[in-house]
Amino acid sequence: MGLANFERSVQSPDHSSFHLERMGLLLDRLGRPHLAVPAVHVAGTKGKGSTAAMIASVLTAQGYTVGLYTSPHLHRTVERIRVGMEPIAPDHFAALVYDLWPVVESVGANGPYGEVTFFEMLTAMAFVWFERIGADFQVVEVGLGGRLDATNVVAPEVCVITHISLDHVNTLGGTVELIAREKAGIIKRGVPVVAAPQPEVALRVFREVAAERDAPLIEVGSIKRWRRLSFDQTGQSLELDGRHGVRSLRIPLLGTHQMENAATAVTAVETMADNGTELSDDAISKGLETVRWPARMQVFSRGGRRVVVDGAHNPHSARRLVEALREHFDFRGVALVFGSLRGHSHSGMLGELRHLSPRVFAVRSRDPRSLESRAIEEAARSLGLAVMPGPENVAAAVRRALGLAGEADLVVVAGSLTVAAEAIEEIDGVEPELYPYLAGDARAG
Questions:
Q1: What is the model's pTM?
Q2: pLDDT tens digits, 362-377
Q3: Would you kindly state where each structural domain of the chain is located, as residue ranges?
Q4: DSSP code per residue over 148-182
Q5: What span, in angstroms and rounded, lies between the C-alpha atoms of 77 and 88?
Q6: CB of 22 within 8 A of CB of 110?
Q7: Residue 427: phi, psi to the nearest 5?
Q8: pLDDT score, position 136
Q9: Of 176 and 216, which is predicted with more confidence?
Q10: 6-290, superfamily in CATH?
Q11: Does position 441 have pLDDT exceeding 80, yes or no?
Q12: Which class does domain 298-443 fall in?
């Protein structure tokens, strides 16, 4: 498939590369499937995938047929298009490609906006599939930013904005305010918007844009209170108190930030219920308890050693990871398998992770955008961290870290979702998609 794929491009795309005209033309040619299913639109820097999955799981528990569209995938492209928590079957995915390809080619060849991108085609495929199966709702995660993202064509029942922090600064801007303005681009006239707890500068932006568009703004941090009741390595129980009463909930995801995501997801579905969607308390409890979202503080045990895999890929998420590890685990030392993508702050992440005093195994994933392990080693040494010799291949580094870790130690994998995915493939025996014609995937093995 010869489509431009900015997700695997070694160059950070300039924001001028993004617009909605081509996506609009493509969807018009396909019969406007994006408007056929009521949507929940989720943007944010951190937690948007987890929050989207929680919302989809709750609606599924109520008995609705729910489409869930997220990005990127961990192991296989089909993971991006789900019904409930289950990825689309490969034969259905292939049929969508076959059906849409002539339209995609026509829009690229005959339209005024150039070639359709990989992400645009996948987004259109999701909309078509959700319409075909007669979904009751579609939960759609923004890919990048919000305002000019290809998903920002839906007519949502509710918009959700999770926590904002600095990320993709080369594309979205170098301040929280600039990034918040891009995320606020999903706010629609008259449509409720649920905002997770935010830096004050981000909240000011959301209040301003919501007021301009007559969109009711529900600030989770103002109407909800939550506290952890108990936890183990399979999840945590919490009490959530808000205008709909007190709920006792369990989520199979670790970390204080996941309680925040759960509060945001519950606020979103409660807002839908306030506007007429049938939703029971049991569905909220069951949906949260059964949600699955891997590579987010995911815990494994191998050879008597504990492994925590997390897709933390910016300094804020690395700080949250450190906090969560200290909250949930007793450990002596940390063997850190760490790799980053170019354009992400590997030094900033290591600056947060250094509080664990880790031994660092610098790795480079198969992704063409992955940063050279040498740059990670230099950054780690400049912070006074011990750098362990060994292969830059993720799977081999995980094996080496497991071999060197003591029984009281933790093996932690972080730095990017691509590194997290390759670690899970090694630990759990997952068969990945490989692209041998791309230079980055030549490092498989």
A1: 0.92
A2: 999 999 999 999 999 9
A3: 6-290, 298-443
A4: T-TTTT--EEEEEE-B--S-SHHHH-SSHHHHHHH
A5: 10
A6: no
A7: -75, -40
A8: 98
A9: 216
A10: Mur-like, catalytic domain (3.40.1190.10)
A11: no
A12: alpha beta
